[in-house]
């Protein structure tokens, strides 16, 4: 059995632990299109001939492009921040401020990894001004993921990265492509709205639009689409007509470790078996 490859970023809702099961639901194709690439665990642990990896987070896409094109230079610069004297509140908030002021893509990419590994829970969150605002995480010795960066860089030679929304990503898909969507998840309750990672967040309207895009893309263009989300009545209603499967996953967002219970995960596949009569 092939050893799974970890992403070099910590990421809320990452798919690393799910890959064995998730892979079974992904159709075969010439290229995998991911409109919500996140930390890239699905990209790293699948074997498509090529990839189109998209996200609306410019910092994320900029980082991936630099890791792909300037690997050694990036590793040297980023590793320099992973030392004892940089692992304290004062240093962290100084880097966060520099990151928020910087317009240089390379500097932002270096700071982004530092903030990701030293910030609370590896969260990626911005305020309304577009400033990164995750607090310091107080970890004993943050890990510098050099081997994971190198592995990502090698695999990234088969990938194209684009900072675009999911609608544009769908438009760029063509025959032979497979689309995998891992959107910010629908809230488990009216109070659980922890999905605001970039800008205004991903609304329930967006959830419904994504489902519609997926149905139409499979039905009218013959391109299969797999979506993952919480397995709740809302998502089952949204993905009516798709082939549904349930997986279980350990969630690590709760601050209280005892509340990190397994939450069912829904896999909704729209493919060539999807018919017009399944749309009401």
TrEMBL record:
It catalyses: a 2'-deoxyadenosine in DNA + S-adenosyl-L-methionine = an N(6)-methyl-2'-deoxyadenosine in DNA + S-adenosyl-L-homocysteine + H(+). InterPro entries: Ade_MeTrfase_dom_2, DNA_methylase_N6_adenine_CS, M_m6A_EcoRV, MeTrfase_D12, SAM-dependent_MTases_sf. GO terms for biological process: DNA replication; DNA restriction-modification system; methylation; mismatch repair. PROSITE patterns: N6_MTASE. It comes from the Bacteria. Its EC number is 2.1.1.72. S-adenosyl-L-methionine binds at residues 11, 15, 55, 182. GO terms for molecular function: S-adenosyl-L-methionine binding; sequence-specific DNA binding; site-specific DNA-methyltransferase (adenine-specific) activity. Keywords: DNA replication, DNA-binding, Methyltransferase, S-adenosyl-L-methionine, Transferase. The keyword Ubl conjugation does not apply. Belongs to the N(4)/N(6)-methyltransferase family. This is Site-specific DNA-methyltransferase (adenine-specific). The lineage of its organism: Bacteria, Pseudomonadati, Pseudomonadota, Gammaproteobacteria, Alteromonadales.
């Amino acid at each position: 059995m092939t050893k799974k490859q970890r992403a070099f970023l910590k990421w809320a809702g990452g798919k690393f632990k799910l890959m064995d099961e998730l892979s079974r639901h992904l159709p075969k194709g010439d290229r995998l299109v991911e409109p919500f690439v996140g930390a890239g665990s699905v990209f790293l642990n699948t074997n498509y001939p090529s990839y189109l990896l998209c996200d609306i987070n410019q910092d994320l896409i900029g980082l991936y492009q630099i890791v792909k094109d300037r690997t050694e230079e990036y590793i040297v610069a980023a590793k320099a921040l992973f030392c004892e004297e940089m692992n304290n509140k004062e240093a962290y908030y100084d880097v966060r401020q520099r990151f928020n002021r910087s317009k240089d893509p390379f500097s932002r990419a270096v700071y982004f990894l530092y903030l990701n590994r030293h910030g609370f829970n590896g969260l990626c969150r911005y305020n309304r001004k577009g400033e990164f605002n995750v607090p310091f995480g107080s970890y004993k010795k943050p890990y510098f993921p050099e081997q994971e960066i190198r592995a990502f860089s090698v695999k990234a030679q088969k990938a194209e990265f684009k900072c675009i929304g999911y609608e544009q990503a769908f438009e760029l898909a063509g025959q032979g492509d497979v689309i995998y969507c891992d959107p910010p998840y629908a809230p488990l309750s009216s109070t659980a709205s922890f999905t605001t990672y970039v800008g205004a967040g991903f609304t329930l309207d967006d959830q419904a639009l994504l489902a519609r895009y997926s149905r139409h893309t499979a039905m009218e263009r013959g391109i299969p689409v797999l979506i993952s989300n919480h397995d709740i009545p809302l998502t089952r209603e949204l993905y009516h007509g798709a082939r549904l499967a349930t997986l279980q996953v350990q969630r690590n967002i709760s601050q209280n470790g005892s509340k990190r219970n397994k939450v069912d995960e829904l896999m909704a596949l729209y493919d060539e078996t999807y018919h017009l009569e399944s749309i009401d």
